[in-house]
Amino acid sequence: MSTNPNPIIIAHRGASGYLPEHTLAAKALAHAMGANYLEQDVVLSRDGTPIVLHDIHLDSTTDVAQRFPGRARKDGRFYAIDFDLDEIRQLRVHERTHLDAAHQGNAVYPQRFPAEHALFSVPTLLEEITMLAGLDRSRGCQTGVYIELKSPLWHRCEGLDLPAAIIEVLEQTGYRDRPDQVFLQCFDDQTLQQLSRELKAKPLPMIQLIGENGWGEDSAVDYDYLRTPAGLDYVAGYAQGIGPFIPHIYHGMTPTGEPQLSALVEQAQTRGLQVHPYTFRRDELPAGIESFEQLLDIFIRQAGVDGLFTDFPDLVVDYLDKLHQSGTN
Ligand code: G3P
Ligand code: CA
Fold this sequence. Notes:
Number of domains: 1
Order of helices and strands: EHEEHHHEHHEHEHHEEEHEHEH
Strand content: 5-15%
Radius of gyration: 19 Å
Number of strands: 11
CATH architecture: Alpha-Beta Barrel
Bound molecules: SN-glycerol-3-phosphate, calcium ion
Low-confidence stretches: none
Helix content: 25-40%
CATH topology: TIM Barrel
Shape: globular
């Protein structure tokens, strides 16, 4: 397994370790920090506008419950798809908070931006890409978009076509013609296969996200199977890479302090698939890892990944700078 000295840095929900996720502020900060790609999780509003939001719900990251009481569904949740864009624009975004009774209102990551400062709004995908392109011009650089189609099957059941709405924004902004600046990612294999067919004449790179079967993702695919050699052969038929969960690669430390790594990276790369694991967080280190730098070292120098999703893009930039200066890559 060889080290890739220049893995791509994907700002996970922006520089979300410092500012509330998926706000334009978090994206601008990630851009300035030197991320290669900014991640957008995308869902649709009631009127079919692609908005940048991680959940199909609005209540973990906005003040929707205060502004629109009585608009929750029977399960008590406030769904983005039940609100028109002009209503979503009225919401204030804050740090992600817990919803369960025991921790309600508490920040998921207590050391991050203060959860009581709801200073931000929910951007549309069009607004975010427009800002990114503007920053690319004013800063003289090229930064890609890394778009996740969130719950496409659920959207279809609700009567809306998420993939089509996203592709329309890429057409509108010119990114449909920039395959070197776009990745499309999804947990659902069928959605990626459909996109791969539809975009065949002018392809965009696709990443098959791999989760855990117990997460209840919006897909019938078996993620355990996708991580097998046969499953990777299957993915290589329609995607250019995989986005695995950190524990799919790192299995902990041996008693003598050696990282135990799966064969997934090598098996994927052998099939021509890039490997972009998620999510690298300074404030959520896997068991046995003592520092963020150690975590990066294991994945970049030992596992040899092609890119990684991180809430802290500046720390990955610093790590890679040091690696290049030391000449040990
Ligand atoms: O898209 C890669 C990673 O972001 C998947 O997890 O839940 O943060 O979207 P999630
Ligand atoms: Ca994502």
